[in-house]
Amino acid sequence: MAPTGDLPLDDLLRAANRGDARAYAAFLTAVTPIVRGIARSRGSGLGPDAYEDIVQETLLAIHQKRHTWREDMPVRPWLYAIVRHKVVDAFRRRGTSVQLPIEDFADVLPAPPEADPTERRDVERLIDRLDPRAAGIVRAISLDGATVAETATRLGMTEVAVRVALHRALKRLARLGAEARA
Amino acid sequence: MRTEALIRALAADASPARPMAPRLVLALLAAALLVAAVALPLLGVRPDLGPRLMLAKAAAPAVLALAGVVAALRLARPDATVGRAGLALAAVPLLVAGAVALEFAALPRAGWGAAVRGSGSAVYCLTLVPLMALPLLGASLWALAGGASTRPGLSGMLAGIASGGVAAGIYAFHCIEDTPAFYLTWYGLGILAVAGVGAVAGPRVLRW
Fold it and tell me: Do B11 and A25 touch (CB under 8 A)?
């Protein structure tokens, strides 16, 4: 479950920002129910799949901006500021304005995912807009759970080339997400 | 796609974080060298420019630029505010205004207008400072786009102040005017114009 204090999240992101992929996965996994809880507690009139879209857009933003966290500062205010920015933005682009007083974030209960029959996320529509090779790399690693090494072998690329392509693809996804419906 | 699947892709892209400050400083420095290398040979460096005069004229824009950079870097973090750098930003025009007050006190009232007008290069100053600042503004906005400002208009304005300050500092090598009143008025207006462009560009360029 989500860590209760500041310490675990701080340690995880600190390790992640030094390149530790396992710590980073643990950080994002711990952060997801917090983001979902905030999105769900603030929005009304949006379906359950819209919340999960907002969660994924926010995770992409956290990913792109993770270097803006200063390690000597607590991670939660930073995290809440990003979540607030993306959730307000996501609701605005869906035509709903939402007020998000940041002081309340700590009181929001983390939320588990809801049953979602389609699982056809906005992020997948964004992946469709990538060039085919970049889209293939993102799908192999996310949907098939392949490692970078396996993906490289499968596509006849070097690992470095796969990493670079993945990095650019995620950056483009975040940008497309911020521009969508703008 | 389930969110766990997305997290797998994000985690596979884990890499050491690149800090913001070097990126902004290097971008500004590179653009400043480029602008100086193009503009100064074209405009000409003033021949009678002693180190004391140069220091007096370049110090204020340099401090302004530094405060602008520090403030913009702070604001590039989503959870930060401008902080004390804002005080430094406000202090520079106040200090120059203090110098103008001293200058005016030593002049008859009839001479004040002439001190502001200088010897007729105001139009050049007002045109060239913003013109020279535009590449700097572009470079600093590019660098700041890697940040996560939640107040992109203000961030753009700060980038404009920093860029205008650096451009004014470069222009000072050419400028023939030495009165604080000229300096405050025309350099100030030039920098304000750049700050305005930055404030308008910020929300478009710094979206995330």
Answer: yes
CA angle B119, B123, B129 (to 5 degrees): 110
Question: Could you tell me how many CB contacts below 8 A there are between chain A and chain B?
Answer: 118
Residue of B nearest to A151 (CA): B12
Task: Check B78 against A82: CB less than 8 A apart.
Answer: yes
Q: What is the pTM of this model?
A: 0.87
- Nearest residue of A to residue B208, measured between CA atoms: A178
Question: Could you read off the pLDDT tens digit of each residue along chain A, which spans 182 residues?
Answer: 444 444 589 999 999 999 999 999 999 999 999 998 888 887 666 677 778 888 999 999 999 999 999 999 999 999 999 988 988 888 787 776 666 666 667 677 777 776 665 666 778 888 989 999 999 999 999 988 899 999 999 999 999 999 999 999 999 998 888 876 54
A46 inside 8 A of chain B by CB: no
Please judge whether B78 and A68 are an interchain contact, meaning their C-beta atoms are less than 8 angstroms apart.
yes
| A178 chain-B contacts, CB cut-off 8 A | 207-208
A18 DSSP β-pair partners: B16
The CB density around residue A128, as the number of other CB atoms within 10 Å, is 9
The single-letter code of the amino acid at A180 is A
Per DSSP, the residues of chain A read ---SSSHHHHHHHHHHTBT-HHHHHHHHHHHHHHHHHHHHHH--S--HHHHHHHHHHHHHHHHHHGGGS-TTS-HHHHHHHHHHHHHHHHHHHTT------GGGGGGSPP-PPPP-S----HHHHHHHTS-HHHHHHHHHHHTS---HHHHHHHHT--HHHHHHHHHHHHHHHHHHHHHTT-
* CA gyration radius, chain A: 17
